[in-house]
Here is the input.
Amino acid sequence: KSGFVTIIGRPNVGKSTLLNHFLGEKISIISNKPQTTRNKIQAILTRDTYQVVFLDTPGIHKPKTRLGEYMVKIAKETLNEVDAVLFLINPSEKVNEGDLHIIKQLENVKTPIILVINKVDTVSKEILAKTIENYSKVFNFKEIVPISALKGDNTNRLLDVIISNL
Ligand code: GDP
Ligand code: MG
Here is the structure.
């Protein structure tokens, strides 16, 4: 099995940490290649039975920046062309404004969107439950997976979910 995945989310939610966790020692960042193409390949995770190519989706990452229509168009095309989108958030009882901005851009996307609640090591079960409850109200996520990218908690489950969508 092989396919394409993109990790989106506000700055500091843990996107790089998650990528590094998945890749570990076998990290193969090719981000120094000139970005002449629309999508930047960030890394490729290769195992015996599957290969996952992680693509960057510029434009979605910076909700505060005023974006040209072209960037938004490209970003949305990427979202529609990959096999799964990982939308990373921090646990938050109230849906974060920046997250809402990203969610608005996901409205017409047909690709499965997996909500990844990162940094669960920093919050109580109650706050995690509220996060799941409130984010579920604003978008129909294909799956919701709580993880700690830093500690590696539940990241195998996330990988299973990714692979099942390839
Ligand atoms: P990015 O901007 O989305 O790429 O976020 P980074 O991967 O750079 O992470 C931002 C900060 O959050 C760093 O200080 C990370 O160490 C921290 N961080 C990432 N994942 C976790 C996690 O699961 N738990 C905790 N406690 N901190 C995390
Ligand atoms: Mg980063």
